[in-house]
Design brief:
This protein has about 700 residues and is of the alpha+beta class. Strand 15 and strand 16 (about 590-595) form a beta hairpin. The relative contact order is 0.06.
Amino acid sequence: MSAEATNPEAHPEARPELRRRSRTRLDLRRLGRAALLGPPSRDRLPDAIGHVAEAHRAHHPDADLSILRRAYLLAETSHRGQMRKSGEPYITHPLAVTLILAELGAETTTLTASLLHDTVEDTEVTLEQVRAEFGDEVCFIVDGVTKVEKIDYGAAAEPETFRKMLVATGNDVRVMSIKLADRLHNMRTLGVMRPDKQARIAKVTRDVLIPLAERLGVQALKTELEDLVFAILHPEEYEHTRALIAAHAGENDPLPAIADSVRAVLRDAGIAAEVVVRPRHFVSVHRISRTRGELRGSDFGRILVLVAENADCYGVLGELHTCFTPVVSEFKDFIAVPKFNLYQSLHTAVATPDGHVAEVIVRTRQMHRVAEAGVVALGNPYTTGEAADSDEERVDPTRPGWLSRLLDWQQSAPDPDTFWTVLRAELAQDREITVFGVAAAATSPRTLTLPAGASCIDAAYAQYGEAAHGCIGARVNGRLTSLSSRLRDGDTVQPLLAHDASSGPAADWLDHATTPAARIAISSWLEAHPDGAAATTTAAARAPLSVVGARGGGGNAVADLPNAHVRLAGCCTPVPPDAVAGFVVRGGAVTVHRVHCPAVAQMRAVGRTSVAVHWRATADCRVTLVAESFGRPHLLADLTEAIAREGVEVVSATVEAPVEQRVRHTYTLQLPDAAGLPALMRAMRDVAGVYDVSRA
């Protein structure tokens, strides 16, 4: 199936007046009537699933089809006499669902479970019978699909619906693959239902199944479901789009000629490639028409180039950009940086000499399989043998990061409404970033996969869980930053945790947290500690605590101005041997600044008189240091003791009120020797809870 060539016109059941052109459609009614007459001899594959076997062998030439024969016989016998609302024998439904999956390249176990997916729910067949006949793997999948089928899709049940589907998908992604194919066939035959029921099913498909199909990378199913939903929920816009496509079909399409040019270029370059024109599906055309307005002939499709190896993809790209004019803004490399749903391709656009612009997708044939079928193309990623017999969660090496995150937090969601709100926000994310989390004592970084737009808060909760409640800051790429800072792909982030076990998040953290795990953990803590935010606000409003000594003056700075009173500027606190400048201020005093202090430029701009300043030969000096630390008891005493051990006198000290468990200390100190300043700053940094010391 094609992820871009599918559209509602391809499904006669959805639009009876239209017929699929790509290939002869199976007569499922005839197959169903044949099935009702009884199974054929058991020494050959039943004719009714011959098309399934043919599609399956196209992807898996060595597949053993005997299990499919047995599964079909059980399904046909169990469903015999049952009819669909369309009047067809019921066996046509599991046959159609299995054919969809076979065309996508699903492995034999998935097809077997697909043939049996309604037997346990709608017939006398039990799970024990399925296990005895087909093994634990098939039984596990059939059981998962049965549980999903029992979900209530009513509006009030939407949160719990999503939760159950999420758990079923996490336990085995093949469960959701069968469910998606099941819904696709039902949508194709939805015309027999009342319009109100069609709309209800289409809305659930739009809100529940299409996002999951996108997340699982099953583009072939996702795009066809999108078009069918589009036709039901937006009939006027659908008809307008259909008219645009029909009008384009009668015009000269520039894409085939551009494709011929691309073939010639690649042939001359010695690159073996298959070049085809892929029509856009209805929703894609509709989106482009809304974005670009009037459509060009080349907007109705894209050129797909298939090659053998990854290196060939970049070779094709080089030839295209050499022989055509590239549209640089349209280039995207999803091979080096795959999308969250396993998708890999190179996207570019080129302009031809006659003014046409064509979008081009370059990928290997294996990438194409995964782009079309997503997780369905990955076969059976789960452990077998002993692991299959245990009740523990299966190990899935192909599980996307988004699915692992959802499974991690869905159990802790406090209520359905919170679950529903946060989940919809998560599903709306269409890009992920990879950052490297470094703990304070870690020797190697831990890779964290987060949604695009994630902040340091999200990284802290991803790395530490509920211990991140005590986070008071972070270092990103080695530099101190706020918790609200947004992370970029490839950043290294080190959350800074307070030592106070009673620390908690502030209410405004919710404004910066994007991941479900972080938002739910923060909300839960705030609900359990309703006075936490108020206490922080009250503390922030308190006046700073100041301890002021008796000494003042300009230390050992001397101004070349007779009888002038000299004082060191508090904004930059110069010390020997800093280059300094003095300025006369009110009262005739001379204020001494470091020459690079911003205040120097301001003084000169307003015409202040500059005075030459030099240092006395004595080694003592005065300096102001700022210590950034986590809030904890006895911190001021410990810092003062560390300063005293270095033989330094405290002239004044100011302690600001804690903000988000961070405390800022400002000390004006008299040093006996300026050379001891680096050692003093190191001693202050060694105090527990202090994470930075700098000159003012």
